[in-house]
């Protein structure tokens, strides 16, 4: 496997998850999910997931404040990446979603990134550095207001209605989290379009 130009982590040090309960988590929250933030990382799997499978989320008491997942029913049933933000930390909360139909072939890596702009109430989903913008779909959702999930950042699972699930079977690497809004150019830097200094994200 070749290392992308902006990839800081060694492929040998990536997080490998079995889809049967494996996950990793920080000791606490990494961003305020009710304010502007961005989360990005590299993900891959042995094959296209056949069920909803989460790669990044940040836990609240009942729901995750956001979830980035692969959903085989997304993108009008074609399958693809999806970001979801519920409006509250309560069972049955209404969630806003953005979807992106891109997915690399088996054993290739996708760079998946979300940017939430709390001032504009916009949620954006980038795959391999790009928004999806077609006549049928834009991988952004307007009028999105999240709640502040104060639990740890989760890799490989998400929480819905108080229960953990959607365990990822595959590999996650080089995850970054930022307070504030990142531009598309900055997302593309993380995705390897330009060289990334080892001592600073930008």
UniProtKB/TrEMBL annotation:
Kindly state which keywords UniProt assigns to this record, in alphabetical order.
Disulfide bond, Signal
Q: Does the keyword 4Fe-4S apply?
A: no
Q: Which domain of life is it from?
A: Bacteria
> Where in the numbering of this chain does the LamG-like jellyroll fold domain appear?
35-185
SMART domains in UniProt? LamGL
Q: Name one Pfam family in it.
A: Laminin_G_3
The record's section on Gene3D superfamilies has: 2.60.120.200
Know the name of this protein? LamG domain-containing protein
| Organism of derivation | Nonomuraea ferruginea
């Amino acid at each position: 496997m070749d290392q992308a130009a902006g990839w800081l982590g060694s492929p040998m040090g990536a997080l490998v998850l079995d889809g049967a309960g494996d996950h990793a988590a920080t000791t606490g929250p990494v961003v305020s999910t009710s304010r502007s933030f961005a989360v990005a990382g590299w993900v891959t799997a042995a094959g296209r997931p056949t069920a909803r499978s989460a790669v990044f989320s940040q836990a609240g008491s009942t729901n995750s404040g956001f979830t980035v997942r692969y959903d085989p029913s997304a993108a009008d049933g074609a399958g693809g990446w999806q970001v979801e933000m519920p409006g509250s930390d309560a069972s049955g909360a209404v969630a806003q979603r953005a979807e992106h139909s891109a997915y690399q072939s088996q054993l290739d890596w996708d760079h998946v990134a979300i940017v939430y702009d709390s001032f504009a109430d916009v949620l954006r989903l980038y795959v391999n550095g790009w928004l999806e913008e077609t006549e049928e779909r834009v991988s952004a959702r307007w009028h999105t207001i999240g709640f502040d999930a104060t639990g740890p950042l989760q890799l490989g699972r998400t929480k819905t209605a108080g229960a953990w699930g959607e365990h990822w079977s595959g590999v996650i690497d080089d995850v970054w989290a930022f307070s504030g809004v990142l531009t598309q150019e900055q997302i593309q830097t993380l995705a390897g379009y330009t060289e990334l200094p080892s001592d600073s994200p930008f």
